[in-house]
């Protein structure tokens, strides 16, 4: 999604030898943008001991309103009034850390937010919704999670200011992907969120992910998420920050949202300064945190609030006094007196709202939604990842797993540290960081991540899938092996059909994707068979010298096809 930077392209205007703008441009009729806009809101800020330490210990920025209490009436009113006039339709109150935690402050602050918003005049505040999840990700207890949902329904969802989505109260379930299909509640329109969208998107529900860190585009028409950046390194976490790039990252995400015009755009977040996703006006507490600045390097504490208002407000047209330009175009405009007027220099203290090409003339090309980002392939008879995903969703039971240790003991299921899961971005990032300069680095490749047994004893991971092969002249099992760690001394993959070995693969050398493999299954056409993927630690190739250390392995795009090459 990287393009020539907005600042770089606009700086060219400052040194142009002649004017490049027309006298005026179109009136207030941009391309249609009709999405509902929501924003996450942190509810556990406190201005009194002991929980004022959330500010002092966890944050590098101080909001312009000071270190406030999330339950302070004046603060709530100021936030809600600004969000409404900026174009925000609903606020997602972040109750994902345990409703009764912080000595009851979280619960009390949420109660106060509802009380204040209910008392505000109609049309002056956004609606409210809740995000829960501590019962799942924190306690791994479905009963505790249901108790949270019951509390939301009984205590908040009946309020006239509670936000309705698809005819029901909206409830966000922040959890791990393993819970996506294990719980629901028909009283709500339940939508899902997880830590990073890239980690959950391959197995996400069709309604997409409504949070938390929007680090990857989603291919669905309901939700597009945007955030200005993300950084938890200052909390001592071993995470890779998403730099703000002075608003360019945020702007690019908004442009993708404008192109697709989804049912909802969700911003993470208004005021999570701990994870530095906040758009609220703020200044650094110390020199270690970069200040929000304008194009001239001058302080602009409300830079991200202005960007948010400029984009979210497009539902009602251009904003008086705001600056706009289209991507890859040189002309810059300021909206004044109901018209876009040509501007000759970059604004001081205000951002330029960069729009998709054609947006000003209502001709923007919408983003397609191909579904999991895979191209249609007429030669694919069966996609084994899709087959496994059906089981992950609880719709079938074609896959089974077992572990066979080096001493010959075999047990059903996964044991001794072996792994069978879906490929996540963290695995490919690790692999790419060790791969050579010319290595293939595709994004979003679907498939499986695996590891042989190692804890207590080495052993083989067996993944069996029952499939009905079509009656075709030619059938091939194709896949792309990936070696995650260069430090691994090698991984073996043995493929069996009905217990008979049909292929053996020895994966060694540098980390990275290897050449696509094809196993001829034509002899089994028209039969119901069991295909086994048997993952080993290298004993077949290296004997007793083999180790299971660093033996993470990827099987990309596992498919049964009628033609390849």
Quick recap:
It contains twelve helices and 28 strands.
Poorly predicted runs of 5 or more residues:
1-5, 11-26, 367-376
Structural class: alpha+beta
Average pLDDT works out at 92
Q: Give the fraction of residues assigned to helices.
A: 10-25%
Tally of separate domains? 2
Quantity of strands, as a count: 28
Main sheet makeup: 8 strands, mixed
Query: Proportion of β residues?
Result: 25-35%
How would you describe the shape?
Answer: globular
* Assigned CATH superfamily of the largest domain: Glycosidases
| CATH class bucket of the largest domain | Alpha Beta
CATH architecture descriptor text of the largest domain:
Alpha-Beta Barrel
How many helices? The count is: 12
Mind telling me the C-alpha Rg? 27 Å
Distance between the termini: 30 Å
- Fold-level CATH name of the largest domain: TIM Barrel
What does this protein look like?
The protein has 565 residues and is α+β, with helices and mostly antiparallel strands. It folds into two domains: 284 residues, Alpha-Beta Barrel (TIM Barrel); 182 residues, Jelly Rolls (Sandwich), CATH 2.60.120. It is 20% helix and 26% strand. It contains twelve helices and 28 strands. Strands 2, 4, 5, 6, 7, 8, 9 and 10 form an eight-stranded mixed beta sheet that branches. A hairpin with a 4-residue loop joins strand 17 and strand 18. It is globular and about 75 Å long. It is a single-pass type II membrane protein. It is found in: Golgi apparatus membrane. Keywords: Golgi apparatus, Hydrolase, Membrane, Signal, Signal-anchor, Transmembrane, Transmembrane helix. GO terms for molecular function: alpha-mannosidase activity.
């Amino acid at each position: 999604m990287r393009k020539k930077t907005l600042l770089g392209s606009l700086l060219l205007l400052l040194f142009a030898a002649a004017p490049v703008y027309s006298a005026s441009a179109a009136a207030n009729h941009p391309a249609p943008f009709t999405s509902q806009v929501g924003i996450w809101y942190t509810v556990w800020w406190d201005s009194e001991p002991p929980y004022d330490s959330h500010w002092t210990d966890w944050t590098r920025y101080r909001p312009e309103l000071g270190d406030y209490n999330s339950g302070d009436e004046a603060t709530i009113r100021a936030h809600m009034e600004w969000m409404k006039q900026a174009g925000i339709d609903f606020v997602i109150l972040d109750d994902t850390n345990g409703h009764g935690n912080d000595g009851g402050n979280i619960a009390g602050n949420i109660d106060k937010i509802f009380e204040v918003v209910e008392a505000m005049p109609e049309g002056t505040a956004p609606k409210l919704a809740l995000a829960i999840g501590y019962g799942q990700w924190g306690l791994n207890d479905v009963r505790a999670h249901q108790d949270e949902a019951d509390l939301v329904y009984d205590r908040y969802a009946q309020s006239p200011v509670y936000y309705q989505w698809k005819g029901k109260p909206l409830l966000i379930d922040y959890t791990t992907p393993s819970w996506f299909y294990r719980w629901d509640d028909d009283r709500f329109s339940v939508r899902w969120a997880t830590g990073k969208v890239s980690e959950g998107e391959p197995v996400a529900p069709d309604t997409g992910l409504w949070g938390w860190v929007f680090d990857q585009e989603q291919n669905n028409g309901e939700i597009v998420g945007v955030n200005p950046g993300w950084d938890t390194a200052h909390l001592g976490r071993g995470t890779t920050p998403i730099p703000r790039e002075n608003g360019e990252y945020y702007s690019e995400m908004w442009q993708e949202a404008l192109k697709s015009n989804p049912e909802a755009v969700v911003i993470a977040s208004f005021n999570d300064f701990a994870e530095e996703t906040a758009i609220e006006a703020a200044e650094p507490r110390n020199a270690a945190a970069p200040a929000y600045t304008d194009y001239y390097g001058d302080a602009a504490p409300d830079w991200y609030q202005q960007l948010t208002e400029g984009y979210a407000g497009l539902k009602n047209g251009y904003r008086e006094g705001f600056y706009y330009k289209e991507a890859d175009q040189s002309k810059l405009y300021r909206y004044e007196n109901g018209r876009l007027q040509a501007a000759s220099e970059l604004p001081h203290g205000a951002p330029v709202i960069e729009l998709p090409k054609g947006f000003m003339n209502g001709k923007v090309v919408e983003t397609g939604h191909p579904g999991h980002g895979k191209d249609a392939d007429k030669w694919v008879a069966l996609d084994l990842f899709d087959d496994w995903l059906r089981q992950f969703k609880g719709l079938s039971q074609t896959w089974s797993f077992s572990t066979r240790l080096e001493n010959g003991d075999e047990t059903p299921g996964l044991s001794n540290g072996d792994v069978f899961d879906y490929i996540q971005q963290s695995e490919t990032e690790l692999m790419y960081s060790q791969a050579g300069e010319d290595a293939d680095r595709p994004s979003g490749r679907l498939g499986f991540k695996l590891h042989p047994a190692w804890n207590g004893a080495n052993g083989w991971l067996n993944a069996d899938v029952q499939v009905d092969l079509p009656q075709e002249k030619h059938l091939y099992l194709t896949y792309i092996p990936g070696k995650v760690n260069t430090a691994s001394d090698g991984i073996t993959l043995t493929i069996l059909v009905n217990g008979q070995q049909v292929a053996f693969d020895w994966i060694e050398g540098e980390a990275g994707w290897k050449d696509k493999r094809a196993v001829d299954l034509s002899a089994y056409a028209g039969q119901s068979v069991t295909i086994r993927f048997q993952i080993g630690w290298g004993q077949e190739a290296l004997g007793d010298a083999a180790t299971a250390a660093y033996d993470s392995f990827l099987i990309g795009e596992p498919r049964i096809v009628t033609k390849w090459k």
